[in-house]
């Protein structure tokens, strides 16, 4: 899984890094206090706990901190490091903090509440802005000045833990700034705030497409030999630089390829209004071109269609919904470029200013580039134009022509090294500098990038929890995480599944003290690794927090979790925890996605019925049953065992 990150020119980045290091050293040498990025205007301090304030100054420099009518003093050590510990305060604010040495810094608008580190890969990254159609009202009505979010820009460090985070700032939840909040984290925070009226701080360290090993410290990976070998190898700068040179060469080659596209190199470009199409063939949108008579093509394919736009939809602002496209696209309307996305995962939602659409005939041209796998338009997504409260369907027959075919590249030129995927790289840069900040708990949504090796993930996830608890030095810090949702094609036969094994890894991690899990087996989309429903994910995490952290006795925080199995002749009787007010089939149909097997472990679909707080499973094909599985698939779409509180049962198996 890949999530686009902001790219900085390497020379500029190197210069910026050098400047930061120079300034950091200068602060110490000149005797000026410098504070970490997290300790800044608008920060949220953890209530009812001792909290640390730290920074850097000249060796031996005396530092005074005034906060909440108390004065604290520290002296910088030989390395220029200093720290003080604030006395616990109740949820309140705003406060001001004055820090004085040879210079003075005033931090304004501080509140005390509950602070959460939120981390993982792209489903935790996904900002509200990427879901601004589904959550348009939530964005427009965001008015929570005491919900605050600190976004940590993506950065890596292969050499060891950094002292500070890259530049960032605390933002409150308002209609403008909430767009950059993690959607999962925002809905988590909003539910808790509405319930308890306590300020919530969110420190967001998440990066798309990253494995769990990148988020762990070297000490945390001590039992994982492959990761340790990679850490040692990456300390060799010549090794790392060789891959960077290859990546640059590959990037240069791709730049040259764009210039070979027939649609862009002719005297008249294929998107221009003066272009007269010749030799174009029919193709359908949505759909992949490999499923429509084009074999194994990586390259650029142009799509073209003339649409009649009614006068009532012309001359006004409009939106074009182009579903999802694999991989990159440029949209032209009447010869004008109106939209562009460079990678496959975001849904295409392009806003058109008034005047782009004309009454009558309009020419739509879409250039699609694909770099691997099937290319084209993902099915089961929205494809239409919306204007003046009317819609115009874009699905159906278009015409296509191939602009360029990319030649296969032998070997792994430029593709063998990604800094953000290396063990410790993200922990060192994005977590280690925050480990002195006092937290209420941690939210974790990750696993897609480790689905190729779920057996190892069963060890890695508990190891991450232990690692972070050791680094934050807050005992059994509450750790809340998301079990992966349903994804990929539905298989209507009992089968093996790596994603099911990943969910089992999450389920088994509940044996780690002070943890809780949000089950999302009903919140995914078969054709999108980034499902649109982020609200229910965040709110299920909030339910888990209400039970685990806030000790709210009235809350049912989870759906049914498998507890035990008893064989009774030709039936297996299953017991569960977290049944809440009782077990139900949420669609009022017969229970589905139960499979049963005898000693041979040849699973077949089973019958299942609810009896009180238990489920009885059987099949006439298996007279001597031994094992049961439930929702054991990549995408058990329609798995319907829930409790009456509306929370789904976790997938499970009784065989090991």
UniProtKB/TrEMBL annotation:
Q: Which UniProt keywords apply?
A: Hydrolase, Signal
Signal peptide boundaries: 1-28
Q: Per the UniProt entry, what is one GO biological process?
A: carbohydrate metabolic process
> Please, which domain of life does this record's source organism belong to?
Bacteria
**Database matches in InterPro entries:** Galactose-bd-like_sf, Ig-like_fold, SASA, SGNH_hydro_sf, SIAE
Using the record's annotation, list all stretches that form the Sialate O-acetylesterase domain. 113-230, 421-545
| Regions crossing the membrane | none
Task: Report a single Gene Ontology molecular function.
Answer: sialate O-acetylesterase activity
UniProt name for this protein: Sialate O-acetylesterase
């Amino acid at each position: 899984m890949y999530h686009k990150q902001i790219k900085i020119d390497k020379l500029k980045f190197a210069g910026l890094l050098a400047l930061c290091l120079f300034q950091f050293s200068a602060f110490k040498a000149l005797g000026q206090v410098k504070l970490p990025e997290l300790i800044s205007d608008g920060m949220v301090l953890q209530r009812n706990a001792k909290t640390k304030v730290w920074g850097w100054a000249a060796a031996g420099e005396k530092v005074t901190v005034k906060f909440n009518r108390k004065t604290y003093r520290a002296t910088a050590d030989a390395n220029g490091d200093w720290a003080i510990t604030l006395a616990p305060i109740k949820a309140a604010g705003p406060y001001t903090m004055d820090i004085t040495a040879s210079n003075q810094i005033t931090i304004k608008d501080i509140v005390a509440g509950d602070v959460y580190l939120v981390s993982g890969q792209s489903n935790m990254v996904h900002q509200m802005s990427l879901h601004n159609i589904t959550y348009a009202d939530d964005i427009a009505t965001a008015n929570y000045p005491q919900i605050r979010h600190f976004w940590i820009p993506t950065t890596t460090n292969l050499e060891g833990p950094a002292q500070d985070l890259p530049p960032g700032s605390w933002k409150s939840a308002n209609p403008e700034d909430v767009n950059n909040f993690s959607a999962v984290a925002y809905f988590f925070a909003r539910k808790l705030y509405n319930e308890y009226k306590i300020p919530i701080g969110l420190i967001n360290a998440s990066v798309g497409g990253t494995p769990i090993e990148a988020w762990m410290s070297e000490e945390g990976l001590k039992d994982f030999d492959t990761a340790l070998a990679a850490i040692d190898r990456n300390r060799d700068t010549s090794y790392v630089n060789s891959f960077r040179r290859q990546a640059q060469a590959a990037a240069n080659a791709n730049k040259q390829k764009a210039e070979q596209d027939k649609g862009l190199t002719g005297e008249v470009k294929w998107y221009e209004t003066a272009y007269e199409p010749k030799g174009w063939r029919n193709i359908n949108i949505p759909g992949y071109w490999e499923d429509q008579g084009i074999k194994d093509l990586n390259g650029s394919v142009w799509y073209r269609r003339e649409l009649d736009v009614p006068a009532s939809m012309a001359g006004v602002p409009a939106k074009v919904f182009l579903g999802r496209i694999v991989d990159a696209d440029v949209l032209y309307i009447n010869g004008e470029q109106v939209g562009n996305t460079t990678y496959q995962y975001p849904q295409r939602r392009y806003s058109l200013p008034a005047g782009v659409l004309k009454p009558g005939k309009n020419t739509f041209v879409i250039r699609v580039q694909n770099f691997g796998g099937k290319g084209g338009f993902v099915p089961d997504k929205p494809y239409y134009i919306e204007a003046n409260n009317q819609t115009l369907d874009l699905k159906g027959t278009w015409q296509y022509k191939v602009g360029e075919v990319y030649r296969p590249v032998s070997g792994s030129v430029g593709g063998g090294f990604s800094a953000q995927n290396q063990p410790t790289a993200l922990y060192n840069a994005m977590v280690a500098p925050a480990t002195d900040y006092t937290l209420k708990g941690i939210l974790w949504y990750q696993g897609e990038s480790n689905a190729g090796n779920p057996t190892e993930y069963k060890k890695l996830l508990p190891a991450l929890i232990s690692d972070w608890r050791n680094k934050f030095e807050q005992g059994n810090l509450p750790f809340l995480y998301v079990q992966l949702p349903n994804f990929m094609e539905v298989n209507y036969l009992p089968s093996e599944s790596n994603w099911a094994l990943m969910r089992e890894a999450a389920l088994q991690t509940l044996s780690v003290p002070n943890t809780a899990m949000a089950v999302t087996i009903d919140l995914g989309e078969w054709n999108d690794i980034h499902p649109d429903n982020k609200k229910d994910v965040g709110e299920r995490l909030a339910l888990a927090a209400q039970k685990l952290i806030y000790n709210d006795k009235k809350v049912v925080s989870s759906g049914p979790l498998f507890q035990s199995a008893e064989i009774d002749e030709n039936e297996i009787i299953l017991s569960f925890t977290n049944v809440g007010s009782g077990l139900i089939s949420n669609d009022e149909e017969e229970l589905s996605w139960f499979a049963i097997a005898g000693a041979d472990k040849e699973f077949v679909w089973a019958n299942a019925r609810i009896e009180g707080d238990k489920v009885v499973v059987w099949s006439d094909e298996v007279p001597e049953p031994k094992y049961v599985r439930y929702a054991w698939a990549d995408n058990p779409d329609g798995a319907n065992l829930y409790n009456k509180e509306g929370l789904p049962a976790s997938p499970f198996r009784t065989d090991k």
